[in-house]
Amino acid sequence: MQTVLVIDDDESLRDTIGVLLEQEGFNAVLVEDGREGFEKALLLKPDLVLVDLRLPGMSGVEICKQLRAARILTPIIVLSAVGDEVDKVLLLEIGADDYVVKPFGTRELLARIRALLRRTAPDAHKVFHFSDAEIDLDRRMVSRHGEELKLTPSEYNLLTYFLHNPDRPLTRDMILNSVWGYQSFPNTRTVDAHVVKLRQKLEPDPNMPRHFLTVHGVGYRFVP
Amino acid sequence: MQTVLVIDDDESLRDTIGVLLEQEGFNAVLVEDGREGFEKALLLKPDLVLVDLRLPGMSGVEICKQLRAARILTPIIVLSAVGDEVDKVLLLEIGADDYVVKPFGTRELLARIRALLRRTAPDAHKVFHFSDAEIDLDRRMVSRHGEELKLTPSEYNLLTYFLHNPDRPLTRDMILNSVWGYQSFPNTRTVDAHVVKLRQKLEPDPNMPRHFLTVHGVGYRFVP
DNA sequence: GAGGTATGTTAACAAATTGTTAAAGGATGC
DNA sequence: GCATCCTTTAACAATTTGTTAACATACCTC
């Protein structure tokens, strides 16, 4: 299991990211203070560091610099607020590998984390299967009977969320928070509409769902 | 067996790297003097050049420049001491492919050599084909139905990036970073404009792209 | 089974993304 | 300098996607 170190002083964001990462199968270590984060990065040897630009104790920039100076090559993603005057070049030069501007969609963040991990530690790319469907996350390709089928971005995001959280009932709120992100607030019915579409595209018989099950009064559950 | 040319005036380091390379199955050619190294790079056509920044005879920077000026595309890794004021961007601009700061771990050096060879070696004498198009990377020639067609530098760069990253969705940011480099900041729409041009020049039917596909909400994907 | 609530489904509109063109500015070569 | 080509971006068109309302159907409680 891969460990992600999250250094951010915004508690709610930190928790959001923490929950997200755990859901997606990562081991998340959450730290508030910059200096403490730096030390954890050294000791813990996480697989990836997610660090806010503005931090108490030690800035994100400083953390990057110090880690690289210590020849720690752990991939780093910098989080920055819209207001911050982010110098993209500077960030990359001091050793950051990528940066994300808040507010960001959680799916986007995840995609970047995955992309970065893949870039730095290429592993066997994972392909999910259920019934006659096949989902290749690296290629972002979904197919049935070997034929590719098109999913819209939100359909795809919803699908990956289900794939990473099988067998567990997921409330619409959980789904909205994870798939749509913390900055948008669509109606919970939007989830239903998208589940319908996933069923139509991926269920052998959309009228008798075998994989995208509804849990009455709760939400939905995906079983592979 | 792949040959690596090592140009460094530090004898002990040169030997260390030489032994390391031999152990790992490379053919290592060790040179002390800059000018001699440059000549060997021309004559020997090694698969990769490892060159120190400070050298007697001819500096590493000069070697890079001259090789590129002579249209020698051999991948180059520059070694630099901590003290050197290394301008990463400058190094990459003059044609170096990667750089490593001394002192470095041998494993890291090896990893970078392998990564670079993997990135560049498949190009050797390789000709790509799709539909009625043919791309010869060595000759930098693109043709359809045997007739040469002209691509602008950025069109060509974008094309080679697609060729090297087939099947996988590539975001506009990834494309910008890889093709334009992170020292320039064009609008992401610039990518779109160039994709349009590639389609016009290379797609059998530009209105129904079969190779340069858009992945809505994400970016583009090239399928050969 | 009745009533109330939850979910399925569809279509229409709004919003976002992408395609395309043209033109301004830059670079390059003569 | 001039002409030419290239890059970039603005602007608008075309397309795709997201969201929600509305109604239909299913489920649960009593």
Layout of strands and helices, then pairs:
The structure is a homodimer of 224-residue chains.
Chain A: E1 3-7, H1 11-23, E2 27-31, H2 34-44, E3 48-52, H3 60-69, E4 76-81, H4 88-93, E5 98-102, H5 106-120, E6 127-130, E7 133-136, E8 141-144, E9 147-149, H6 153-164, E10 169-171, H7 172-180, H8 189-202, E11 212-215, E12 219-222
Chain A binds a DNA duplex (30 and 30 nucleotides) through helix 6 and helix 8.
Commentary on this structure:
The structure is a homodimer of 224-residue chains. With 224 residues, chain A is α/β, with parallel strands linked by helices. Chain A folds into two domains: 3-120, 3-Layer(aba) Sandwich (Rossmann fold); 127-222, Arc Repressor Mutant, subunit A, CATH 1.10.10. Chain A has eight helices and twelve strands. Chain A has helices spanning 11-23, 34-44, 60-69, 88-93, 106-120, 153-164, 172-180, 189-202; strands at 3-7, 27-31, 48-52, 76-81, 98-102, 127-130, 133-136, 141-144, 147-149, 169-171, 212-215, 219-222. Chain A has a five-stranded parallel sheet, sandwiched between helices. In chain A, strands 6-7-8-9 form a four-stranded antiparallel sheet, with no helix packed on it. In chain A, helix 2 (34-44) packs parallel to helix 3 (60-69) and helix 6 crosses helix 7 (172-180). Chain A is elongated and about 60 Å long. Chain A binds chain B through residues 71, 73, 88-89, 92-93, 115, 138-141, 152-153, and chain B through 88-89, 105, 108, 167-169, 174, 182-183, 185, 215-218, 221. Chain A binds a DNA duplex (30 and 30 nucleotides) through residues 152-155, 186-187, 189-190, 192-196, 199, 214, 216-217.
